[in-house]
Amino acid sequence: MSIIRSHVLVCGGTGCFSSGCKKVQAELHAALERHGLANEVRVVESGCFGFCKMGPIVMVYPEGAFYCQVMPEDAEELVKEHLLKGRVVERLLYKEPVTEESVALFNDIGFYKKQHRVALRNCGKINPESIEEYIAHDGYQALARAVTRMTPEEVIEEVKRSGLRGRGGGGFPVGRKWEFARVSKDSIKYVVCNADEGDPGAFMDRSILEGDPHSVIEAMAIAGYAIGASQGFVYVRAEYPIAVERLSIAIKQARETGLLGKNIFGTDFSFDVGIRLGAGAFVCGEETALMTSIEGHRGTPRPRPPYPAVKGLWGKPTLINNVETLANIPVILLHGPDHFASIGTEGSKGTKVFALAGNINNTGLVEVPMGTTLREIVYDIGGGIPGGKAFKACQTGGPSGGCLPAELLDTPVDYDSLIAAGSMMGSGGLIVMDEDTCMVDVARFFLEFTQDESCGKCVPCREGTKRMLEILERITKGQGEEGDIQLLEELAEVISKASLCGLGQTAPNPVLATLRFFRHEYEAHIRDRRCPAGVCQALLSYHIVAEKCKGCGLCKKVCPVEAISGELRQPHMIDKDKCIKCGACVAKCPFKAISR
Amino acid sequence: MLTVAELNAIRDRVRKQLSIREPHNRLIIGVGTVGIAAGARDVMVTAMQEVNARGLDLVVVGEDLAMPATDMPVVKFVSADGVEEVFTRVSADGVHEIIASLAAKVGTLPGV
Amino acid sequence: MERIKLTIDGNPVEVEAGTTILEAAQKIGVHIPTLCYHPELRLEGACRICVVEVEGMRNLVASCVYPVANNMVVKTNSEAVRRARRTIVELLIANHPQDCLVCSRHGECELQDLSRQLGIRKVRFSGEKRDLALDESSYSVVRDPNKCILCGRCVRVCAETQSVSAIGMANRGSDSIVTTPFNLGLAEGPCVGCGQCINVCPVAALREKDDTERVWEALQDSKTHVVVQVAPAVRAALGEEFGLRAGSLVTGKLVTALRKLGFDQVFDTQFAADLTIMEEGHEFISRLQKRENLPLITSCSPGWVSYCERFYPDMLPHVSTCKSPQQMFGALAKTYYAQKAGINPAHIFSVSIMPCTAKKTEAARAEMQASGYRDVDAVITTRELANMIREAGIDFANLSEGEFDLPMGMSTGAGTIFGITGGVMEAALRTVAEMLDGQELPEVEFQQVRGFAGVREATVRIAGQDVRVAIANGLAQANRLLERIKAGEAEYHFIEIMGCPGGCIGGGGQPLSKDPDIRMKRATALYRQDMLKKVRKSHENPAVQELYRSFLGEPNGEKAHQLLHTHYHARSRY
Ligand SMILES: Cc1cc2nc3c(=O)[nH]c(=O)nc-3n(C[C@H](O)[C@H](O)[C@H](O)COP(=O)(O)O)c2cc1C
Ligand code: SF4
Ligand code: SF4
Ligand code: SF4
């Protein structure tokens, strides 16, 4: 009989998948075989650890050693040194970006230390393809408690008391939504899990489905019991193949184990879950569009009321919750609503997962208690801005949110504070921008996204965002006109007030927020024909500062279009008509004599 | 259909297997080059079999313990609350005794 | 029903629960502009023109879809509302061709109306505009996607009212377009040419294929003998184009106007309608007696015939082989009339004035050349005729009353009611009953087949037997009826199907109207004309009797078959 003394968890999330984790797994197996350890050490594919920048990630238990960027060729050393001889492989450990110190243990890494993992509790810890591992971590205990020892009303009451609000963007109190769905009279009702996750850069829902699919299934069953539904659907985008596969396996296992299906735990509660694939349009994440899409029509939003809780899928009362929202549910029922409510702030309970991206050292998924400040996330967890550059702004709420400037870094992240600051929580995208970012260009970028994703049903969004984008493009091309800012603001107001769905209603936010905090940048573009951050190509004008130029001639050599002239040891000149603004000279000049 | 009792049984059984990932009490075997030469691998395998047979809440770990070569093989016990105990020149037989002496201290895993 | 009390612009209103803000406002005479809203179609709430402010709501709400609630305080005219509406209209105009002066909808365009109503004098936005190709593939309908404002009414009417779904929304965002399957053009898809989409389109993105130029040419050519036939529904609607009250019957003025336009002979499609009853009545009696291919289904609506060929090919044996009155007339104009008047049929140009766009496609069908020539050379709609009358400078409202030319201008009340849903059935029953009973009907009006319900059914006692009949108007209703028959839930002897809601009076070539009662008003006019007619049964039309005597021989006889009957083809939808 083989006795296992060590588990090697290899991350199998989408991030690590693309950085080659399958190959690493194979090499680990081979090396274990070579060293005769195959019977003692088990290699387990886990869900995402959240630290995708450092992938592929390998965790070795029982020590809990955390190895990053493990390449297939590292497997031999890992097995020989660590697993055979018990020596930690220093060079593969994580190094703190600022101190350069190596850290062996997962929990000591700055990126994880300030995190509080509730929704991501099992991600990276368990094998997502094993229902038994989920059960070993108290999986399905909450469902058992709900259906055998609680009434639906009691379940709803606990969810209400927990203070949990929707993580899909709206922040609507979850317990109240469940209650609405419960009181809608109908013999057929549905539970829908929104796993469309269209916010570019956000991947918490994907990670949960990949790393802990059973938590979502369990929560959906609990929701089904609470509202009186016996069928659930997970609407997941087809671009998430690993998530879809893990989820299908999980559903199958839950059915086989008897945790989905008829008479769950011997009660008369029955529940099953199906998967519906989304085509990946951003707007299909909007709940009414999502339902229209499940019904087999073109995924466009429809007016509310009627709300889904009254008239949803196929006209039946339907509860729609986000993946992360649902992942919190078993915890609430297991550890009690008061425990959950003890995390977070007055108006925002629990934790929130953010996808850290942009100009930041540690990119990846972080889960923090509500109320953590942006500064803590950016500096303590994110490890600050790379290259010693200054922080300029961070965008929360994805394309529907807004950019907050350095002055607002102490804003606590919770629903209400972010809105008060001029942004929003959204689904948890958090993009950090350094001093080299042009905020007009950022606004243009986000608007380009929403404009492209507009379904085209309503006029303000379809036509309005197009015109706004054109104005922004004009400005970044140096063709802005006096009055453009006002026009942008007027359009923004009408689009946000009159559009049919949340996409249009929030589309102008990035423009409004940048106008609020970085208006001077717009004005510089329009009035001075200048891009202060030096990003907008059309507005760049390269010239050599005569006092700094030593006449070394390097720039002249590197210029691809011979736009630079000058005698050796004499200040050089750039011919603006010839210059193609490639920036090669700036990079080459040893004296920083070229400005733009 | 699954009953709640059956669910709990699965939980307890698998939890035992997974205790490796959240160790309480650890029995560290010095498996550096010198330790292995002195027979630490045998000690380790025996320790694992014994712990498993008794269903103890104890995780066997291999580590490169810095100790004089003459003391090898070395076994170090670290309890959940951080109390350490070191045993030197341990043979495969000796490890049975060590584990027997620790059994009461660490207790068994739930469901065993 | 629960009553809801709210205030709109400071006025208290009480309405039933479930009423929308728009309906509540209409009730107290507050006009809220709309665009994508259409009272007969599913609510979309898409264009956002009808937004209003509701106290306590962060955003404006679309009044066409938003239900009222107790104590709601609505403002339909606040600054925010006005700004939103104006901006929306400006945005639509900014992406719309600016060729109003030469647009076919000039003066009848809802976008133009809105712009005028909101006093828009300047459009602040400019930028990329759509540049898409016209779809001129169909004989009936022209689509100009550049003018489309994407309200979706056409898509809804085609799917909901007509069950055809020949057009749909495609692409996303600012690339959205209304288009045909695979963007192949209307003629390549399931479109039946009914023109209902034109009637609901607020702008000129959908319009009839304009055939007036060909008619003008013929009229101008002294060597061509131009005969014209006018369908019944035209006379009940044309007046609307010239400011007359809806429901005005303008038969006499219409005849005078046609003469003034230069038509050589002004005839009446109603003559051919009476003839149709003779043929179809005999066909029915024969099928009834042989118990063969029942139910018999009428064939005078080309929209319906096209639909049946595409969607219910298995029902084609049930469809009467009779041509529609237009085509019966066409076949006779170049044979019977040519012979009688001694004119070389090659020199005859036969025009028909129809309430219908599908008739244009019908006249172009390859089978429709029984005379050896194209039987009907040009079909123009009521709207196109109005344009010709206007262009000719004719003061229509003050014209004297003219009379149709004989013999093909003589008709009965039965021919008149062909223009209304149920009319063909009633006309047929008047004749069939007398022929089978062998005695005069005590009552010519069959009230049981009248009305506007989508599907109606009745049982009529004729010659000691119960004849079960059904009537459907609008193709979605036809679809409903046929599905019931296919499922064995209903059985009939005789069915009338009209492609358009209300029958021809609601055809796709009729004057545009926002009057919700318009079909009722036009129908009333035709029923009134029927009542005033001295002869009200087709078989009593002396001109038709003379036609059989001197030219055709027997109803359903050999010559009749050659000229007046046709056949159908199953057609693929794509
Ligand atoms: C344009 C748009 C896109 C959205 N995309 C998502 C999404 O990808 N995932 C999601 O959970 N919610 C999304 N939402 C929010 C949903 O409409 C809905 O509020 C949410 O799924 C409700 O779940 P919650 O209450 O658990 O947050 C989107 C909303 C809008 C307006
Ligand atoms: S706001 Fe945009 S995405 Fe939403 S319905 Fe309108 S056009 Fe579609
Ligand atoms: S003509 Fe009739 S069938 Fe054709 S697209 Fe228009 S509504 Fe549909
Ligand atoms: S074609 Fe006309 S009715 Fe159809 S969507 Fe366009 S504007 Fe509306």
Provide a descriptive summary of the structure in words.
The complex is a heterotrimer of chains A (596), B (112) and C (574). Chain A is of the alpha/beta class and 596 residues long. Chain A folds into five domains: 6-109, Glutaredoxin, CATH 3.40.30.10; 131-341, NADH-ubiquinone oxidoreductase 51kDa subunit (Rossmann fold, 3-Layer(aba) Sandwich); 351-434, Ubiquitin-like (UB roll), CATH 3.10.20; 439-527, NADH-ubiquinone oxidoreductase 51kDa subunit, iron-sulphur binding domain (de novo design (two linked rop proteins)), CATH 1.20.1440; 541-595, Alpha-Beta Plaits. Chain A is built from 23 helices and 19 strands. In chain A, a hairpin with a 5-residue loop joins strand 13 and strand 14. In chain A, helix 2 crosses helix 3 (75-84). The mean pLDDT of chain A is 93. With 112 residues, chain B is of the alpha+beta class. Chain B has a single domain (23-106), classed as 3-Layer(aba) Sandwich (Glutaredoxin). Helix content of chain B is 45%, strand content 18%. Chain B has a four-stranded mixed beta sheet, covered by helices on one side. In chain B, helix 3 (40-54) runs parallel beside helix 4 (92-106). Chain C is an alpha/beta fold and 574 residues long. Chain C has two domains: 3-91, Roll (Ubiquitin-like (UB roll)), CATH 3.10.20.740; 213-564, Rossmann fold, CATH 3.40.50.1780. Helix content of chain C is 34%, strand content 14%. Chain C contains 19 helices and 17 strands. Chain C starts with a strand and ends in a 10-residue tail after the last helix. The model of chain C has no long low-confidence stretch (mean pLDDT 96). Classes of the chains: A alpha/beta (596), B alpha+beta (112), C alpha/beta (574). Chain A binds chain C through residues 281, 283, 298, 300, 302-303, 305, 451-460, 462-467, 470, 487, 490-491, 493-494, 496-500, 505, and chain C through 43-49, 51, 59-60, 62, 65-67, 80, 83-84, 87-88, 91-92, 94-95, 124-125, 127-128, 149-150, 152, 168-169, 171-176. The site of one iron/sulfur cluster (SF4) has 14 residues of chain C, from helix 4 and helix 5.
